[in-house]
Design goal:
Helices cover 63% and strands 18% of the residues. The chain is of the alpha+beta class. It folds into two domains: 256 residues, no CATH class; 97 residues, no CATH class. Strands 1-2-3-4-5-6 form a six-stranded antiparallel β-sheet. α1 packs parallel to α5 and α9 packs antiparallel against α10. The longest helix has 44 residues.
Length: 365
Amino acid sequence: MWTLNRYVIKDFLIVFCMAIGILTFAMLGARLGAVMEMLARGIPVKNFFLFIYYTMPQVLIYTIPWSILVATMVVFGRLSADSEITAMRACGVSLLQVVAPLLLFVIVMTFICLYLQVYAGPPMYRKARVLLRDTATTQPMTIFEPGQQIEFEGAVVYIDDKIGNDQLRGVQIFMFDDKLHLTQDIFAESAKLSVTEEAMLMHIKLNKCVIGSYASDGSKQTIFNDELEFSFDYGKAINENRVRVRAKFLPADQLLARTKIMRKRGASAQDLCELEVELNSRIALALSPIAFLLLGLPLAIRTSRRETSVGLFLSVILGGVFFLSIVVIESLTILPAIYPQYLIWLPNLVFQALGAALLYRVSQQ
């Protein structure tokens, strides 16, 4: 019996590792676009790998259960197609005996997903967002891209080119008032950037400037200046964002604490619903590996095709339907009257119930 279990487990783990590698790479690639662009602009390579490290738990939350589904569909589809499951039954080996070690593995993966969803994932994903923000502010050259506008406190900045680590060439700055009326346009042949991290100030020192000032009647006065310096306070916006961390970045204990506090303060039903949906969706996603195993196993046996593409196709469809259902229900927080915090469990219940029913029918054949 151990020889048979080792045979099945080996195939399952090989396909699982291949699937999780491919899916993780694909999902990381979708998130790395902005980072690759900033890497090309000159951010340290260390920050690039830190971003991958901080983002990995959030990606694994989806790729672990999906990889279990892929491995289940491919491995048991092949076993069924080669009549190996029929041979096992003929030798008195039940399907439960074959699946038992895999079920233990899936339970371990479920606990890992639960840990990532409840504790590790959200705070680390916030660190990834903060890393991008802080990189942009401590490495000012990464903010600027030739031909693209950058906005600072009522000013719009364009540049023609970047030179070295702190030099800009062909700088155009447009200054606006509170009513978005143009008050100044400044052109400088070159500029030098520096950052005061403690005060969270970005300094732009312009050289050989042409300054156009606009009066309220539309008249323009032009003056020339060899040097001109601006300082932009980026700390105000950052500190405002730090006052209240979004619910999706909080670990479960802090999320529960915020829910209790808001309930005592008499928060609206929609605000409470958003917090409860966030917590329930994390747990529902963490339990998805069990649902995928229960549904994938009988479907793989019933298809009985030699082509692994059939199992791959079904796993993509089933995984997509499951995760899309979670996303759709999460968007229903604007309708607290329909209790989306409980509806979020519907995909799990449907997959598990359907899988259990199909598994019973397969075991009776």
